[in-house]
């Protein structure tokens, strides 16, 4: 399944502004036949196909699985801890990509409470930022090494009610890209918005996904 929209380009202060192309790769059951869907969001330098391959380790055999692809393999150019305006317009375009992916799933007849998310690294940050800005009852979410985006947290950006949506946050301490303090802060925000958050911090594990995180995802989210 493939969705696409035009790239919009213009010049602004001597730099080229570019939006992402909506390019969704799929696996699992076709959307129109599935009752549940998993949206997977890859990290910086990764691909939709890479993150889709991880689904073979998850209990999602009866799910439609979809993954948007970032332009040039990067959702936004700088650290997620940089001032938000420095990651624009790419960040807003990336959030729009996630929104359009969710819309494609709901257009296929799958209700939000049956939509699940899995994001890693930059993809985890993007997933968490999208969810916090659009809180409602979803099926569940897994975010490995990520947090909400910005040098400072703007709580006013985050609205809605997760109504008990389960969320698993996994990370390493330390992690070169994602301070553990931001993971904790993100967990607190999600809890304030009525998500059921499970967080797990692994000492000196490194910037990767471990087997226990997969098992947590399967036992809590994809059970």
TrEMBL record:
UniProt keyword list: Hydrolase
Coiled coil, from the record: none
Origin: domain of life: Bacteria
Key word Metal-binding present: no
TM region(s), chain numbering: none
Domain Phospholipase/carboxylesterase/thioesterase: 32-219
PANTHER family referenced in this protein's UniProt entry, alphabetically: LYSOPHOSPHOLIPASE-LIKE PROTEIN 1 (PTHR10655:SF17), LYSOPHOSPHOLIPASE-RELATED (PTHR10655)
UniProt similarity note: Belongs to the AB hydrolase superfamily. AB hydrolase 2 family.
Designated name of the protein: Phospholipase/carboxylesterase
Species in which this protein is naturally found: Chryseobacterium jejuense
């Amino acid at each position: 399944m493939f969705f696409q929209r035009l790239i919009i380009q213009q010049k602004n202060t001597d730099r080229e502004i570019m939006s992402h192309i909506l390019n969704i790769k799929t696996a699992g059951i076709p959307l129109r036949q599935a009752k549940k869907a998993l949206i997977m969001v890859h990290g910086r330098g990764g691909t939709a196909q890479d993150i889709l391959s991880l689904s073979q380790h998850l209990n999602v055999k009866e799910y439609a699985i979809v993954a948007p692809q970032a332009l040039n393999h990067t959702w936004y150019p700088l650290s997620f801890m940089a001032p938000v305006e420095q990651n624009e317009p790419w960040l807003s375009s990336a959030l729009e990509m996630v929104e359009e992916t969710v819309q494609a799933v709901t257009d296929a007849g799958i209700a939000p409470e049956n939509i699940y998310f899995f994001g890693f690294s930059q993809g985890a940050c993007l997933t968490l930022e999208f969810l916090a800005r659009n809180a409602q009852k979803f099926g569940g979410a897994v975010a490995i090494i990520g947090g909400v985006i910005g040098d400072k947290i703007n709580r006013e950006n985050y609205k809605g009610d997760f109504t008990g949506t389960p969320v698993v946050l996994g990370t390493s301490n330390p992690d070169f890209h994602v301070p553990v303090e931001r993971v904790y802060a993100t967990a607190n925000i999600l809890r304030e918005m009525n998500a059921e958050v499970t967080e797990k911090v692994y000492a000196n594990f490194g910037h990767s996904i471990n087997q226990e995180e997969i098992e947590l995802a399967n036992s809590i989210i994809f059970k």
